[in-house]
Amino acid sequence: MLHYAYGAVKKSIEAYVTRAGGHVIEVPLPFPLNSNDEIVTEFKKALDKGKANGRRVRLAVIDHITSMPCVVIPVKELVKICREEGVDQGFVDAAHSIGKSPKGVELHHPVVSHEYGNGLAIESAWIGTRDYSPQLVVSVISIL
Ligand SMILES: Cc1ncc(COP(=O)(O)O)c(C=O)c1O
Name one GO molecular function term (predicted). Predict the structure, then answer.
């Protein structure tokens, strides 16, 4: 996970990974960054650390565009490195990416609801019925 990852995402990843018995490696990134090479170098170093002593890297969390600070990450290159290095799975935080997609490329978030076809802004404003039940579920209860 990049040092620049979104705070709430960082906390979620920490919580899930710790619960699963793993640990998180943060890719330290200097600021300001002068080139993509700096990102790639630090990313590769973190993968090496994760793979030390025969361990596996189960998940790479990569942002496309970070928000604090604002940096476009060379996500294609990092995903390619993950594939070459045998990382099990990748998760790309593309929260800011749709607006950045090159002209002519059609991107749509996965939520399709009432306003489909009426433009991204209005389509995103009403995403339909939300299911809050997962937040109300307690997986284990101990009764003393
Ligand atoms: C990079 C990034 N990821 C994730 C989020 C979280 O988005 P949300 O609060 O809509 O889930 C944000 C919010 O600004 C963000 O900047």
Answer: transferase activity
